[in-house]
Write a structure and sequence with these properties.
Elements: H1 10-30, H2 38-56, E1 59-62, E2 65-67, H3 72-97, H4 106-131, H5 136-165, H6 171-177, H7 179-203, H8 213-216
Antiparallel strand pairs: 1-2
Amino acid sequence: MNLVAAHFPQSWLVAAWLVAGALLIRSAVRVPWLKLPQAEMTCWFGGIVVVLMAWQMKASLQPGLAFHLIGAAALTLIAGPDRARLGLAVALAADIYDGHGNWASLGLSWLIVAAVPTTLTWQLLRFAQNKMPLNYFTYIFVNSFAAGALSMWLVGLLTCGLLALAGVYDFGFLADEQLPYYFLMGWPEAFITGIVMTLLVVYFPQWVATFDDGLYLKDK
């Protein structure tokens, strides 16, 4: 997700940088760095690399509109929302450094591709833990598959809405020609998120910060 800076007013870009910077500082402060198990740190680092690699396999039909897997839902479940936001910021900066996007629009891109889907995934996890049966299937189908699909669809709606609001493209064109692609991309996002989390909680549950054997599997 690399928005073109020239498409947006300077005030939008500055405001996005300020908001993104404040949220990232908040996340960095909230992470208990000295108490994190080595297994969680290793999986988090590996997740950032995998997300960056997934972003390289993208299709761009129009300037500012790129279609690729996001990986935010999986990284949130693996590392929690704060480390996921920090990791996605690193991946986005590396992607821009590699020539995909503009530094001026990094804040705006991060808010859409990182802040929004990580928040959605985290809130869905909390909802499921408070309102739904605590079992393995809830975690996989609601918090992994559903969160992956919803993240992609919300990112698509926000991206198209932002471009339409800025006057870059007509909303009718975006609704007819671009939103359907985001809808279709929601299914592979859901499938890959679900499969990755299934494998991790089965074989390496110690790598997943949001999965607790005692909570999901005890007396099941």
